[in-house]
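User: For documentation purposes, I need each entry recorded in a consistent format: the amino acid sequence on its own, followed directly by the corresponding structure tokens. There are two entries in this batch. Please keep commentary to a minimum and don't merge the entries.

Assistant: Recorded as requested. Entry 1:
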Amino acid sequence: QVQLVESGGGWVQAGGSLRLSCTASGSDFSANHMAWYRQPPGKQREYVAFITSGGSTVYRDSVKGRFTISRDNAKNTLYLQMNMLKSEDTGVYYCNAGQNIVTMTMTNPQLPSWGQGTQVTVSS
């Protein structure tokens, strides 16, 4: 079972930037698709960005042009560069791994395990 540790969150003013990191262990990182999710206050967990094992990317509409997902297979690390942050980006951010693209891009995806997440707060 994959173990996930997210980091890099914090408080930032609207328009600012943050870079999140996620280290994964316990599985073949390079063979997995990876994704970032967030859970805004009082809402369900939603997918934010997705990267296939081959490096293709998909983003939810609200973050296109502002967020960039990337991966470093040599370091077993996933990244999310977040620019031009908005107050609606506030939430706890999580990463996860898997093989099923449909499952991984659902709202509130049912995946085997989750890390502790990292809090992102954007102040307007």
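Entry 2:
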Amino acid sequence: QVQLVESGGDSVQAGGSLRLSCEVSSGYTPGNTYWGWFRQTTGKEREGVAAMFIQDGATYYADSVKGRFTVSRHNANTLYLQMNGLKPEDTGMYYCARQRLSGPPHEAVAYDYWGQGTQVTVSA
């Protein structure tokens, strides 16, 4: 069983920055899969924000965060999401997730293991 733990969420003003971290505390997933970040707000579906293909580092970004968010790996067990130029619409619970089998980077149903989430609140 893969266990994921997110951290780094906070309350910031619009224009500010945060760096989220996702630590893998146990388990294994194949290299030809994605490690992703999703966010969710009340009443809305979980949205794929960014992801990295573990094997070669290829990245995916949602259009809404391109140019502002950057996903990176610190080591085999840590994934970061650097968020700059934060907007109120970026507010939500942010989750990291990993796949057992390769699937689309932006689809929540393609991911099998999820962390508990870390809250990001951006005020105007």
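Summary note for entry 2:
The chain has no helices and eleven strands.
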